Amino acid sequence: MDVFEAMHTRRSIRKYTDEPVSDETVRELLGAAMMAPSAGNAQAWQFVVIRDRALLERVKEFSPYAGMAAGAPLGILVCGDTSLEKYPGYWVQDCSAAMQNLLLAVHAKGLGAVWTGVHPIADREAGFRAMCGLPDNVKPLGFAVIGHPAQERRSEDRFNPERVHWDGYGKVRG
């Protein structure tokens, strides 16, 4: 699958089979996430891999739109590490790029995933911080729920020319 096919066919998957995701595959996924661009090439991220069923079931207690984690074999919490930043505040962009790489890698491996938002919702941040024992310098951005898909999703062309502005906002090409 080339990169354009991956981007155009990746969809959020919220239902998974019981089949586990191998350690080798997790390593490949994290390697792809870590290839993301980052401000000053600081790579100011940390990843918490969660396989423990009890922890995956707890996620819905503080992250209500991540309840599907209870039925998945794997979750990866993408976090920014402010102690590693060269340019303070850019951890959000860095981790968002890493998350997108992670989602595309998941799709390329024939798996399914959904990015569930954590930052900037204080209750969700606190829940993941407590559950995962995050130090103060590690900020949770998002939680990817990952597994073998138990649903099929169709892609659609989302290009919308009304959202494109040429040489300034509100200007159309022509």
UniProtKB/TrEMBL annotation:
InterPro entries per the UniProt record, alphabetical: Nitroreductase, Nitroreductase-like, Nitroreductase/BluB
UniProt key word Oxidoreductase: yes
Key words of the record: Flavoprotein, FMN, Oxidoreductase
CDD domains noted in UniProt: nitroreductase
Pfam family, one: Nitroreductase
Gene3D superfamilies: NADH Oxidase
Domain Nitroreductase stretches: 9-61, 68-148
An example molecular function term from Gene Ontology annotations: oxidoreductase activity
Name of protein: Nitroreductase
Organism field: Paucidesulfovibrio gracilis DSM 16080
